[in-house]
Design brief:
The complex is a heterodimer. By secondary structure, chain A is an all-alpha fold. Chain A contains 6 helices and no strands. Chain A has one domain. Chain B is an all-alpha fold. Among the domains of chain B are: about 35 residues, no CATH class; about 40 residues, no CATH class. Classes of the chains: A mainly alpha, B mainly alpha. Chains A and B meet through helix 1, helix 2, helix 3 and helix 4 of A and helix 1 and helix 3 of B. Chain B: This is ATP synthase subunit b. Chain B: Belongs to the ATPase B chain family.
C-alpha cells in the first residue's frame, strides 16, 4: 500500500483484504477475475499438485508428496468416520473438499502479498451455509419429522423441555453464523495484527526510537507468523470437525 | 495497489456513483469484508473453486488414494499371511528335524545294544569253547599221565626182573627166567 510517504507511519492493516480486479481498475462484477479468484485458483492448483500429481505413481511404498496426500486423506477420513459414523462416509468427498479449500487458502494467504479468501465473511458464510443447508436437508430426508427430536431433549425433566427446545432451535440457527465468523475472524485478525506490526517496522528510518521499536516489531511479526501458521491449520480443523459434528446430528438426531 | 488507493480517493473526491462510493468508503474506512459490492464476485469464484475441487477429488484423487491404500493393506496382510505360513513351515521343519534326531539317537542306541549283545554272545561262545578245549586238554593230559604212570610201572617191573636176574646171577645161582618173572610180579603186586 502507499506506505510512509514522508509524513510518518501509515497504517493500512485492512487494505490487504480489498478485493480488486486483477486487470485494470474497473468495477468488480460477479465475473471479474479478482485477486480473490486468483488465490482460489492457486489453492485449486496446489490441491491438484498434491492430490493428483503427487499420487501419480500410485506407489505401494509412497513418495514424500504421496504420503502427505495419504496423510491428509487418512486424517479427514478418520475424522468423518469417528465423529459422524460409518454412514457419514458418503459425505467424505464433500467434507474433504471443504477442508482442503480452507487449509490451502489459510496457508497460501500467509505468503507475503497474498490474498486470503477465507478472511472474507462472504466466502466463509457460503461455506457455512452450504454445511447448514446440507445438514438440515440430510436430517429431514433421513429422519423425516424425527429430525425435530434433535431439539427435544428427552433426558431433561419434562417442564424444562420446551425451554430447552427454544434454546436448541436458536443455537441450531446460530450455528452457521458462528461457524463462518469464527473462521473469517481468525484469519482477518491475525493478518491485520501482522500488518500493524509491519507498519511499525520502518520506524528506524524516521526516528531514533526506531532502534528499539523496529527489532521488536520484526520479532513480533515473526512470532505472529508462527502463531498464524498454527491458527491456519487449527481453524481448518475446527471448521471440518464441526461440519462432522453437525452431520452426526443430522444422521443420528437422538440424544 | 497505490493506484487503486488513489483511484479510491479520486472516486471519493469526484463523488461518483453512489454504490461505488459506498463501497470504497467501506474500503478506506473499515473492513473490506463488509463491502457488499464484492460479494457476488467472491461467491461466484468460490462456487467455481469448490466445484472444481470436488470434481477433481471425487473423480480422480480420492478413488486413486483409496485404491493405493487398499493395495497397501492387501500387500501388508498378504505379506503377514505369507510370513505366518513360513513360520508354520519353519516350525514343521524344526519338528521334523527333532524327530529325525530322536530317531537317529534311538537307532544308534539300538545298534549299540545289538553290537554289545553280539559281542557278549561271541565272548560267551569263545569262553565256552576255550573251556571245552581246556577240559579236553586236561583230560588228554590225564590220560597221558596215566599212560606214563602205567608205562613206568611196567618199566619198573622189567627193570626189577632184569635187576633180580642180575642179582641172582651175581649170587651165583642160575635162575629160571620164568620163575623169576613170576616171583617179581608177585612181589610188586604184594
Amino acid at each position: 500500500m502507499s506506505e510512509a510517504q514522508g509524513e510518518g507511519l501509515v497504517f493500512h492493516p485492512m487494505d490487504q483484504f480489498i478485493v480488486k480486479p486483477l486487470f485494470g481498475d474497473g468495477a468488480v462484477h460477479w465475473y471479474t477475475p479478482t485477486n480473490a479468484a486468483l488465490w482460489m485458483a492457486v489453492s485449486v492448483v496446489a490441491i491438484i499438485l498434491l492430490l493428483v500429481i503427487g499420487t501419480r505413481g500410485r506407489a505401494v511404498v509412497p513418495s514424500r508428496i504421496q504420503s502427505v496426500a495419504e496423510l491428509a486423506y487418512g486424517f479427514i477420513h478418520k475424522m468423518v468416520e469417528d465423529v459422524a459414523g460409518k454412514d457419514g462416509l458418503k459425505f467424505f468427498p464433500y467434507i474433504f473438499t471443504l477442508f482442503l479449500f480452507i487449509v490451502f487458502s489459510n496457508f497460501l494467504g500467509l505468503l507475503p502479498k497474498a490474498f486470503t479468501p477465507t478472511s472474507h465473511i462472504a466466502v466463509t458464510a457460503v461455506l457455512a451455509m452450504l454445511v447448514f443447508v446440507t445438514v438440515t436437508v440430510v436430517g429431514f430426508v433421513k429422519n423425516g419429522a424425527g429430525f425435530l427430536s434433535l431439539f427435544w431433549v428427552s433426558s431433561a425433566p419434562l417442564p424444562l423441555r420446551p425451554v430447552l427446545a427454544l434454546i436448541e432451535v436458536i443455537s441450531y440457527f446460530v450455528r452457521p453464523v458462528s461457524h463462518s465468523i469464527r473462521l473469517a475472524g481468525n484469519m482477518m485478525a491475525g493478518h491485520a495484527v501482522i500488518k500493524v506490526f509491519a507498519a511499525f517496522a520502518p520506524l528506524i528510518l524516521m526516528s531514533g526510537i526506531g532502534i528499539a521499536v523496529t527489532p521488536l516489531s520484526i520479532l513480533a511479526i515473526t512470532a505472529m507468523y508462527g502463531l498464524e501458521m498454527l491458527v491456519a491449520f487449527i481453524q481448518a480443523y475446527v471448521f471440518t470437525i464441526l461440519t462432522c459434528v453437525y452431520l452426526k446430528d443430522a444422521l443420528h438426531p437422538h440424544h | 495497489m497505490a493506484n487503486e488507493h488513489e483511484a479510491a480517493n479520486m472516486a471519493h473526491d469526484a463523488g461518483a456513483a453512489a454504490a461505488e462510493a459506498a463501497g470504497h468508503a467501506a474500503e478506506s474506512a473499515g473492513m473490506p469484508q463488509l463491502d457488499f459490492s464484492t460479494f457476488g464476485n467472491q461467491i461466484f469464484w468460490l462456487v467455481v473453486t469448490l466445484v472444481v475441487i470436488y470434481w477433481v477429488l471425487s473423480r480422480i484423487a480420492l478413488p486413486r488414494i483409496a485404491s493405493v491404500l487398499a493395495d497397501r493393506q492387501g500387500a501388508i496382510s498378504g505379506d503377514l499371511a505369507a510370513a505366518e505360513e513360513l513360520k508354520a513351515k519353519a516350525k514343521d521343519a524344526e519338528a521334523a528335524y527333532d524327530k529325525a534326531l530322536a530317531d537317529a539317537r534311538a537307532e544308534a542306541q539300538k545298534i549299540a545294544g545289538e553290537a554289545r549283545a553280539e559281542i557278549q554272545a561271541e565272548l560267551d561262545a569263545a569262553t565256552a569253547k576255550a573251556d571245552a578245549e581246556i577240559s579236553a586238554r586236561a583230560a588228554e593230559s590225564e590220560a597221558r599221565i596215566g599212560e606214563i604212570r602205567a608205562g613206568a610201572v611196567e618199566a619198573a617191573e622189567v627193570v626189577a626182573k632184569d635187576a633180580a636176574a642180575e642179582i641172582v646171577a651175581a649170587l651165583g645161582g642160575k635162575a629160571d627166567a620164568k620163575a623169576l618173572a613170576a616171583a617179581v610180579s608177585e612181589r610188586l603186586k604184594g
